[in-house]
Design brief:
alpha+beta, globular, disordered C terminus, C2_domain_sf, GTPase activator activity
């Protein structure tokens, strides 16, 4: 069993952002931080106050994260980027929206006193007798504090406040991982109603000190517990005005965020569900019976259909049955009343599954076909416009001839450029039939044959069915927004974006196989009509070759075994190797050089260039950790470290610099995925470097000692090239189907007997088909397996006692009498008397020593 948290984030767009540049505009981008660690940076959208990003990410997290912060920044070339505002989403807010949050959120100001992060290690206890009692706080260490100084670090010290008195620790210079090991004591006030406040500050020689966060303890709670020790998360200063009060006209963000807290059982638990689904796919469609896939399609809402489709596609890819699954969907879709000219234009499960299938298995093919043309469009930046209502003469002035081009000349020039791009792209598509993955060709061959059999009098329909997916749902969206398909690292500017839009529209018209219909809607496309007609003929020939009846040899060899996106190269690129005093094989050969690194399923190797001979390599089994490095270590915030075991058995570290935060996190994610099962992975590490005689992060002098921060092996980014995870896909399908148990039964009777369904749903005793009955039984057994893995819920008496304890603590710490009275009224008299006896009449030393045991256990047993 494994517990994991998956966070899906889609940053859609912004609106009404303030202008940060002298031009009256901004160049906005977003930084996504999870618990104050930067994970994602969107591309910059230039010169706009209403940017559109449309970027989607899925992050695997360690359970227990607290919040997500999305900062909107304005990029500046000559100075530090400006902060426009931020949106903060807590874990509790996401828990209130189990189906995900979607909507607009207003940006709030960024208050330096709220930009806190990190944890502090404390031990707090109450000592002494009834005559003289003391409050002792041992300040041990802290980790991952906010960086407030220009050198990329802070100079932290601790300030303790209690009963009007203040004490301070020493200052640790240039460290976000300080170690104090200091102890402070206060005389305990009577009655002990005060709070102990532990604040962390950054010391500054000039100007005021910077606030780094605080932890507050209730002294009454400490008396009951006797002692508290552990790592405590630093919190912001809540005494300032709330976020809503400070919210101004900073604009807003449209977001879609969904959190999944998943408990993934061992794979054998999901075998009955997987086997049932596979069996249903193999049986295929049977006349007169309602198929399980039909029930799933009919009961799944439009909001969930894309997610369910990709889960099903990945599940059947892992089982080697995706071709049969898609064929079943085509058959079921064609069995419905439909018109040949509207085939697969809706967002049905068949359409979404085929679209997801192309993205999962066809991204390398997409890059191979579209990459050169997209690169050319971005590099040339030609002005292309065919709509007379949008022609801008000033943008194409011909200064060499001392005249301005006419509207007709601008349109003719745009037609020539667009026709050139379209011709190049069609050439690439026509030549790409042999390069198309055999599995995609097989799926299109099935689709082609099914539609031809369904509409024998409309042979044109089978070509349109293929192009409706290949052109309209795959090629055209990638041409329009290449950043979202990883074809480019940045969004296009306004001129390039318009060119891409016209090119995507041309591909759509070619894919419709009837360019004249498009001309009727937009008459200004008429200059492009000859090129579109020629493209339609070429596309028809391409489809004929693509779905040729001859079986591809590679496909025959791969028949019957699981197929999926498992590329030989996981990640590759140029990285700078920083010099250190280490003498490991990697550092000795490559220190100070920029080399090409290649990560595969066996090793992390490097050479001078992509095609050059490999200089050296690290076996994946020898990699112990892949983590970030502090900015102050090398003067860059995009450095990672790969800790590995060298040949001689000693531990070495390679420091590799990436070009941006996205590349950094992509490398870290790829390394963590391929090394996730290594038995020797580290649990702690040093985020700094060892210089002179100590670590730059925590100033420890023991080079081989334990690290000062915890490793983050569980934080990864989801990617289309990731290996398949059958148990995760099965778990997500189970969660979806579990929520449809009652709906599946009702929908079956509605589809099986439409007239009888009007009289109301059938009871649970009504006979169901074997497939649906088995599915409901399998879901029930899986639910019981999950229930066995969860801790048992508390009994009624213990639950009342826990509610009383929590409410009392909250009422006391908050100073509210009403909450305390409300808590007391919900407790049985026996429990109230016992709590009073134990907390008031016992001697203080005995109460301090045995308080937690006496208050919790005997009362709980007595009340139960």
């Amino acid at each position: 069993m494994a517990r994991r948290s998956a966070l899906s984030i889609r940053i859609v767009e912004g609106r009404n952002l303030p202008a940060k540049d002298i031009t009256g505009s901004s160049d906005p981008y977003c930084i996504v931080k999870i618990d104050d660690e930067a994970i994602i940076r969107t591309a910059t959208v230039w010169k706009t106050l209403s940017p559109f990003w449309g970027e989607e990410y899925e992050v695997q997290l360690q359970p227990g994260f607290h919040s997500i912060s999305i900062y909107v920044m304005d990029e500046d070339a000559l100075s530090r980027d400006d902060i426009i505002g931020k949106v903060c989403i807590t874990r509790d807010m996401l828990a209130e929206h189990p189906k995900g949050y979607s909507g607009w959120m207003s940006l709030s100001e960024v208050d330096p006193d709220e930009e806190v992060q990190g944890e502090i290690h404390l031990r707090v206890e109450v000592l002494g007798s009834q005559v003289s009692r003391r409050l002792r706080c041992s300040v041990l260490e802290a980790r991952d504090l906010a960086r407030k100084d220009r050198n990329g670090a802070s100079d932290p010290f601790v300030r303790l406040r209690y009963n009007g008195k203040t004490q301070e620790s020493t200052v640790v210079k240039k460290s976000c991982y300080p170690r104090w090991n200091e102890t402070f004591e206060f005389e305990l006030a009577e009655p002990a109603e005060e709070k102990l406040c532990v604040e962390v500050w950054d010391w500054d020689l000039v100007g005021r000190n910077d606030f780094l966060g605080k932890v507050v303890f209730s002294v009454q709670g400490l008396e009951a517990a006797g002692q508290e020790e552990g790592w405590f998360r630093l919190c912001p200063d809540k005494s300032k005005p709330t976020e809503d009060e400070r919210r101004g006209s900073l604009g807003s963000l449209q977001l879609q965020v969904k959190l999944r807290d998943e408990t993934v059982l061992p794979s054998h638990c999901y075998q009955p569900l997987v086997q049932l689904l596979c069996q249903e796919v193999k049986l295929g469609r049977q006349d007169g019976q309602v198929h399980l896939v039909t029930l799933l399609d009919e009961t799944t809402t439009a909001e969930c259909r894309q997610e369910v489709a990709i889960n099903l596609v990945k599940l059947f890819l892992g089982q080697g049955l995706v071709k049969e699954f898609l064929d079943l969907l085509f058959e079921l879709e064609l069995a419905k009343p439909c018109e040949p000219n509207t085939l697969f234009r809706s967002n049905s499960l068949a359409s979404k599954s085929m679209e997801s299938f192309l993205k999962v298995t066809g991204m390398p093919y997409l890059h191979f076909v579209l990459g050169p043309t997209i690169t050319r469009v971005f590099e040339e930046k030609k002005y292309v416009e065919l709509d007379p209502g949008k022609v801008e003469i000033k943008d194409v002035g011909c200064s060499g001839l001392h005249r301005v081009q006419t509207e007709g000349e601008v349109i003719e020039q745009g037609r020539q450029h667009l026709q050139s791009y379209l011709g190049e792209l069609l050439d690439a598509i026509v030549r790409s039939a042999p390069a198309c993955p055999p599995l995609i060709r097989a799926a299109f061959r099935q689709l082609f044959q099914r539609v031809g059999e369904r509409f024998p009098q409309h042979q044109h329909a089978k070509f349109v069915a293929v192009t409706s997916f290949l052109c309209l749902r795959f090629f055209s969206p990638a041409v329009m927004t290449p950043k979202l398909f990883q074809l480019r690292a940045a969004h296009a500017d306004a001129r390039t974006s318009r060119t891409l839009l016209l090119l995507a529209k041309a591909i759509q018209l070619v894919g419709n196989m009837e360019p004249a219909a498009g001309r009727a809607k937009e008459t200004w496309l008429s200059p492009l009509l000859p090129a579109l007609q020629e493209g339609t003929a070429r596309m028809r020939d391409f489809i004929t070759r693509l779905v040729g009846t001859e079986e591809d040899k590679g496909e025959e060899e791969g028949e019957g075994r699981p197929l999926g996106p498992s590329p030989a190269v996981v990640k590759e690129g140029m990285l700078l190797v920083h010099k250190t005093r280490g003498k490991g094989p990697l550092l000795a050969a490559a220190a100070g050089k920029k080399l090409h690194f290649c990560l595969t399923a066996e090793s992390l190797s490097f050479g001078k260039s992509p095609g050059a001979e490999r200089i050296g390599a690290i076996a994946l089994g020898d990699i112990l950790a892949a983590e970030k490095v502090e900015e102050k270590s090398f003067g860059s915030s995009h450095v990672m470290q790969v800790v590995y075991m060298a040949t001689g058995g000693q531990q070495e570290t390679a420091y590799l610099q990436c070009k941006c935060v996205n590349e950094l996190n992509q490398w870290l994610s790829a390394l963590r995925k391929v090394c996730g099962n290594n038995p020797r992975v580290l649990r702690s590490y040093h985020p700094g470097v060892f210089r002179g005689d100590k670590w730059s992060c925590c100033h420890q002098r023991d080079r081989t000692g334990l690290g000062c921060d915890r490793t983050r092996h569980g934080v990864t980014l989801q990617d289309w090239s990731d290996p398949l995870e059958p148990t995760v896909e099965a778990q997500r399908l189970f969660q979806h189907l579990q929520g449809l148990r009652g709906t599946l039964r009702d929908k079956y009777w509605e589809l099986q007997e439409p007239e009888a369904a009007r009289n109301g749903p059938r009871g649970e005793d009504a006979a169901l088909p074997e497939g649906l009955s088995r599915l409901l039984a399998v879901l029930g057994e899986l639910e019981r397996c999950h229930r066995r893995e969860l801790p048992p819920p508390p009994g009624p008496a213990l639950l009342r006692l826990q509610t009383y304890t929590a409410a009392t603590s909250e009422a006391i710490s908050g100073g509210t009498t009403g909450g305390l009275i409300k808590a007391l009224l919900g407790v049985p008299l026996v429990a109230l008397l016992m709590v009073t006896l134990l907390t008031v009449t016992l001697l203080p030393p005995l109460r301090v020593l045995l308080g937690p045991f006496l208050v919790a256990s005997p009362v709980a047993l007595l009340v139960a």
